[in-house]
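Worked Example 4.2. Consider the chain below.
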Amino acid sequence: MDLAHLVRVRDSDGRRLAQSVSTMRTRALGFCLGLVLAGCLPIAVTSRLDIAEEARQSAVCANAEACDAAWARAVDWVGANCAFPIQTHTDVLVETEGPLGAPSTDVACKLERVPVAEAGARLELTPSCGNWFQCDPERDYLRARFNGEMRAAMVPKPSP
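Applying the procedure from the previous section yields the following structure tokens:
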């Protein structure tokens, strides 16, 4: 081995140890990579908290006309975004088939139209799957996406 590639280090007993420069570079690179990934952790945690908050904020419509339109859109959304076909469809409840037992990660959905105020309603999506550890897509993500899309659809369009 070439002496230019060795660094002499003494251990606690005074013995000389030889480490290659490439080993030291690898360790330094691993340390730097760890620092970079640790720097991304707050971003991931913040993003996860945003999704959880969005998942908790159900879409609410104010009157019968808006609620009927939102309900029709929500039923279409369930049919397009949940893994199973719709099994039950009433004026206040939509349920898909499923979920399958473990280890299936496919998502089944339950959509409810819960009355609020005089003529308004809150649209609540409850996704579930047969796997205790993970659904695909994740339940909070699916609920957050549903709530966001439903609230965006309920925003009144400006008149031309």
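DSSP finds three helices and seven strands in the chain. Residues 47 and 68 are 32 Å apart (CA to CA). Compare this with Example 4.1 before moving on.
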